[in-house]
Amino acid sequence: MHRNLREFLEVLRREGELLEIEEPVDPYLEAAEIHRQVIAQGGRALYFHRVKGSPFPLVTNLFGTARRVELAFGGRPERLVREMASAAEELLPPRWSALWGRRGLLKEVARAGVRRSRDLPVAQVVNSPPGLRKLPALTCWPEDGGPFLTQPLVYTEHPDTGRHNLGMYRVQIFDDDTAGMHWQIHKGGGFHHHVAESRGEALPVTVFLGGPPALTAAAVAPLPEVVPELLLASLILGDKIPVGRWAGWDHPLIAEAEFALIGRVPAGVRRLEGPFGDHYGYYSLAHPFPVFQVEAVLHRRDALFPATVVGKPKQEDYFLGEFLQRLLAPLFPLAMPGVKDLWTFAETGFHPLCAAVVRDSYEGEALVHGFRILGEGQLSLTKCLFLTDQAVDVRDYRQVFQAVLERLDPAKDLYVIPDTPMDTLDYTGGRLNHGSKSLWIGTGKPRRALPTSLPGTLPSYFGGATVFLPGVIFIEVESFEQNPTLGSKVALEKELADWPVVVLVDDVKEIRDGTTGLWTWFTRFDPARDLYARTRPGRHRPAYQFPLVIDARMKPGYPGEVEPDPEVAQKVDREWGRMVAAAVRR
């Protein structure tokens, strides 16, 4: 596939999927607003040739449609992973007859990895001091703490083993040689920094921008710690990744990257990073994070600066996330025997909702597989896990919910686990990095038919109501500040006794479709704090009874939703409307 960013852009240009813009654009709010308006309408990738305050062109929305993801990666990576998964049992332990029958696969695998390259385009220009503020880094939302690198490829190595990690952790630019490093507790770069910091050592870091699209996919893929991201990138690329050495720097440099920021993250140094509009659609708040002290910025002579914009789904990360899940899905049964299929939902920000089809050959086996999922890498950050043994399409939340809710016995099949580590960006648990989990298990034969129409009468204190899907009703009630314990009252309402799930919201008119419904439900509640139900006493856990009431109202301590600056949005409508329309026009 594409060896570097510019090869990919040439394909997009040839396919009519790239809009090139000569008018100067402001990286403060304006470029992001143009991007958002274009992606909301399924428009083209954007190439801003002139960015105010920077000598570098800006490219965004590279993966913002399923078609561009296909153009970026093609179908070969998914076919290769499926073949690798199907061959795993046959090839372990290796037998010559089996290996001979898989010659094509072995050739593909043999091409994976890195190779030494004397040609190092990424180091054609060296800026030291770095001059970070010359980069066209975006400020995407009005309350952002400043400009961020939104598509950085952060390379680190474990201080003991030398095993590398390539992750995407946002980098806030503080000044010309200092940036924030938003390492989260569950990510490889953070693990490497923890080891170095425990010894009082600084951790060397290289931040790449651009390069083969395969690098971006590998950097955000939820891989186990033992699987090198550069290996996955080369498998997606279909060739070895060329790397070279730069005098005085221990890390290999990805030859075809556009930029390489080199420096160190010292031990014991923290600085407030954020706030920042994140992929949950809210502002992640300012917190102390490690500091990246940049020593030099290397780049191509004609370097291009890639960026993205995150916010309320669906954004560009939705399409890249779906590709990665399809790519890795055949490997889940190998890593977790008994798990037949698994999916996390981009509409919720991925971690808040996961669904899986599991084997349930004896009573309680589904629970075993549920715990296995919750102990696996980034899946350990899952907030709500829905499990069934039915042959449903896990990508279709309607099929999943119907299968589970038809079969769920809330007294024994619903588990709430308090006080667990959670995604750093999820604030519903009350404090950073903490929250709770819930497992919903629906296996075997159906226990009930799910209601599909509103009850004839509803209590007078309810506002509007809508059936989200069979068995799930959304009801508008007064705000949490006015009545914080309302969920316990709703759980006693006899009119709702036949409804498995009742979701309380501030404004039912905001539930316009599946995306807004899932987003509201799963980004605004913590299972241990916000799930209400009548219960029967048990020795070690409650036996829940329907309805299960989910309080998905906004609550004190939640960060605010991201919203565009009205003046900037009006300016884009007024001055860039023609350009936005051209980006959408095919």
UniProtKB/TrEMBL annotation:
It comes from the Bacteria. It holds the Pfam family UbiD_N. GO terms for molecular function: carboxy-lyase activity. Residues 319-438 form the 3-octaprenyl-4-hydroxybenzoate carboxy-lyase-like C-terminal domain. Residues 9-87 form the 3-octaprenyl-4-hydroxybenzoate carboxy-lyase-like N-terminal domain. Signal peptide: none annotated. InterPro entries: UbiD, UbiD-like_C, UbiD-like_N, UbiD_Rift_dom. Residues 119-313 form the 3-octaprenyl-4-hydroxybenzoate carboxy-lyase-like Rift-related domain. One of its GO terms (cellular component) is cytoplasm. PANTHER family: 3-OCTAPRENYL-4-HYDROXYBENZOATE CARBOXY-LYASE-RELATED, 3-POLYPRENYL-4-HYDROXYBENZOATE DECARBOXYLASE. This is UbiD family decarboxylase. It comes from Kyrpidia tusciae (strain DSM 2912 / NBRC 15312 / T2) (Bacillus tusciae). The lineage of its organism: Bacteria, Bacillati, Bacillota, Bacilli, Bacillales.
